[in-house]
Amino acid sequence: MSHPRPGQAARPSYGYIVSFHDLHPTPADFREEVLAGLLRTPKSLPPKFFYDRRGSELFDEICQLEEYYLTRVETGLLERHAAEMARFIGEEALLIEYGSGSGRKTRILLDHLPSLAAYVPVDISKEHLLAAATELAQAYPCLRVTPVCADYTREMEFPDFEEFFYRRRVVFFPGSTIGNFTPPEAEMFLRHAAEVARPGGLLLIGVDLKKDPTVIDAAYNDGQGVTAAFNLNLLQRINTELGADFDLRLFEHRAFYDPAHGRVEMHLVSRQAQTVHIGETAIPFAAGETIHTEDSYKYDLADFEQMAARTGWTRQMVWQDEQGYFAVGLFAVGQTFS
Ligand code: AVJ
Questions:
Q1: Ligand 1 within 6 A of 262 CB?
Q2: To 10 degrees, what angle do helices 301-310 and 183-197 make?
Q3: Cβ(140)–Cβ(74) under 8 Å?
Q4: Residues 174-195: pLDDT tens digits?
């Protein structure tokens, strides 16, 4: 199927990161966004800041919880259907993963894509990105790994990767991370992804679906308190990196599914009236006042498919579990002519 080129038979061995594109999301952004979020009413902080070293560890723990069905179900779908996904993706693709996590899901795909041109993980956290990319490069020594450090929730200029020969771009966005965007932001992201993927490109995306609210509630209120620790760690991070004086005992985790908006809201609730300081800046809290730390939107599959269609994507295939908890969709850039 693929035309032979020199070097294709014996693939070179790398075992390390081949090149690194740093688009420099700066620590200044962290300070500014935190201050802006805490000085507005109602208070809010963007969920992208959860993932410092400790936060990433806690998130990996969340992914192993009985209550957190998302990872288990999505991983099952990838394992069951990876061979079929790989047939859609074809030979010598450029695999671009947004918000690359522990790499577990990536590996399921990579195991079925031996001729991949390169793997491009994109993440805001440089430390986390490089550690994960290095591990992956060592586990797949014949794979070119070229990480991009960027904040993809903002406009970004994607590198052109003209240094590689590849047949098509494939954007991989697992984990229902798209759920962190509001619906208009999700649309913008899908448009951006269609530009990045280019004509002929693909999108492989994990989407958490609407379901019995008690199941969703439990996923964000686990019995071991790991999600609470994950939420509260954001305050610890602000203490450490911005010299703030949050007393973590004076805040509590709250998460609930709001069926009207189709989303989980996560908050940190101030247990009493108090004033917190970030450097020079005093931040007053009323008793019971909350910091809104995350939205996690759940989709109706038909609605999601319509949104994808509006933003330049044509449905190729959707895989779901028997309970209809989670979907992995494969879309192609371009229109259907029917
Ligand atoms: C990584 C955004 C998909 O919304 O389920 C897990 C993050 N927050 N538990 C989600 C999260 C609380 C997660 N995403």
A1: no
A2: 50
A3: no
A4: 999 999 999 999 999 999 999 9
